[in-house]
TrEMBL record, chains A, B:
Keywords: Transferase. Its EC number is 2.5.1.18. Residues 86-208 form the GST C-terminal domain. It catalyses: RX + glutathione = an S-substituted glutathione + a halide anion + H(+). CDD domains: GST_C_Tau (cd03185), GST_N_Tau (cd03058). The lineage of its organism: Eukaryota, Viridiplantae, Streptophyta, Embryophyta, Tracheophyta. This is glutathione transferase. One of its GO terms (cellular component) is cytoplasm. It comes from Lupinus luteus (European yellow lupine). Belongs to the GST superfamily. Tau family. It is an enzyme of class 2 (transferase). One of its GO terms (biological process) is glutathione metabolic process. Residues 2-81 form the GST N-terminal domain.
Length: 220, 220
C-alpha cells in the first residue's frame, strides 16, 4: 500500500490544492477517486466530521481540509517549501488564504450558485470588492514571489474555476479590465508547467457546473 | 513605543486568545483599547479589510485574525511552544481550531443571537452535535496534554463565554450532564492561573450580552 493516499475528485479546486502541494514536494501518492453521490467507507471513516474531500492519508493517519493538508505536507516533508519561511510572511499567507475561502469564494458561490437573484447580485458586489483587496496586494509575479507558494495554490480557484463559473452564469466578475494584475497572474499560474499538467480539463467542468445550475432552477 | 501592541476590547474571546498567547510566551505588550462604536484610525489603518479586533502590531507590522495571530506569536517568539511541534499533531490542532470557529461558534451564535426562533432551535441542535465531536476528541487534561496549547486557547470561548451566552438565553447547551469531559476540562481551564488572571469579569459580560439580545428584539 502506498504511504500517501489522497481521497478526492479530480474536478475539485480544493483537491487540486493538495495534488499541487504533493507535486511541488515531489511526493509519490495514490489517488483514490471518490463518488460524492455514494461516499466510500474510507471517506466516512477518515473524515467522519465533514465527510468531504480532500482527505490525505499518510501512514494510515488522516488529515482533512485543504489548507490544513497543504500546511501538513509542507511540515511533514522537507525540501521545496510551500509556505514562506519568515514568520511575518507566513502570517500574511495564512491571512490571505483564509480571505480567499471565507470572503472571495463564499461571495462567488453566492453570485453563481444561489437561486435568488437579489442574493446573486449581492454576491457579485461582494466578490468584486473582495477581489480588489487581493489585486491591491499582488506585488510580484506570483504571490509566493518568483515561485509558486501557498497563496498561489489557494488562489488557483480564482485563476481557473472562477472564469468557468462566470461563463456558466454569463457574469463578468473576474476580468482583465477590472483586475489587470490578478488577470496576468492567473495566466502565468495556469500556464506554469506543474499547474498545467494537473488541472482538470475545462470542458467537462463547464458541462458539470452548467448541469448543476440547471438543477438549481429545476428544483425551484 | 512598545515593540508589541495589541488593539482589542477586553471582553472579546478572540482578543483574549491573543492576550493568552502573549502571556504564555512572556511577551511584554501595550494594550490599546478600541471603541468598536467609533473605531480608531489605527484600527482602520492596520486592518482595512475586516476592520476588526484583535490586531497585533509587532515592530509596526500588523497581523489580523486571532488564530493567525496566535500562530504568528508562536513562530516569531521562541520558547514555550503553543502549537504542538510534531507535524501531525499540528495539523490536528489546526483542524480543531477551525472546527471551533466554523462549526461550534457559528452554531452557538445562531442559537443565541438570532431573532428567528426556528433558526435559534436549529443553532442549538447544530451546537450539540458539534460539541459532541469535541467531547469525543478530548483524551487528556487539556487538549494540549498536561499543558495548555493552541486548541485550549481557541476553545476557551466554550469554557467561559458559552455558559454566559446560554444563561442570557436560558438555554442548556453546554452542561456537565451532556458533556462531562468537556465540562471538567472547562473548569480546569478557567481555573488555570494564567487564564484566570486574564479573563474579563463575568458580570459586565453578562449585562453586555443581555443588552445585546434585548436590542435584537427591540429592532424586530
Amino acid at each position: 500500500m502506498a504511504e500517501v493516499k489522497l481521497l478526492g475528485v479530480r474536478g475539485s479546486p480544493f483537491v487540486v490544492r493538495v495534488v499541487l502541494a504533493l507535486k511541488l514536494k515531489g511526493i509519490e501518492y495514490e489517488f483514490l477517486e471518490e463518488n460524492l453521490g455514494n461516499k466510500s467507507e474510507l471517506l466516512l471513516k477518515y473524515n467522519p466530521i465533514h465527510k468531504k474531500v480532500p482527505v490525505l492519508v499518510h501512514n494510515e493517519k488522516p488529515v482533512s481540509e485543504s489548507l490544513v493538508i497543504v500546511e501538513y505536507i509542507d511540515e511533514a516533508f522537507k525540501g521545496n517549501p510551500i509556505l514562506p519561511t519568515e514568520p511575518y510572511q507566513r502570517a500574511l499567507a495564512r491571512f490571505w488564504t483564509n480571505f480567499i475561502d471565507d470572503k472571495i469564494f463564499s461571495a462567488i458561490r453566492k453570485a453563481v450558485f444561489t437561486l435568488d437573484e437579489v442574493e446573486r447580485e449581492k454576491g457579485v458586489e461582494e466578490a468584486l470588492e473582495a477581489l480588489q483587496f487581493l489585486e491591491n496586494d499582488l506585488k510580484t509575479k506570483f504571490f509566493g514571489g518568483d515561485e509558486i507558494g501557498f497563496l498561489d495554490i489557494a488562489a488557483l480557484i480564482i485563476a481557473y474555476w472562477v472564469p468557468i463559473f462566470q461563463e456558466v452564469r454569463g457574469l463578468q466578475i473576474f476580468t482583465s479590465e477590472k483586475f489587470p494584475k490578478l488577470y496576468n497572474w492567473s495566466q502565468e499560474l495556469i500556464n506554469h508547467p506543474i499547474i498545467k499538467e494537473n488541472l482538470p480539463p475545462r470542458e467537462p467542468l463547464l458541462a458539470f457546473f452548467k448541469a448543476r445550475i440547471e438543477g438549481l432552477s429545476a428544483s425551484k
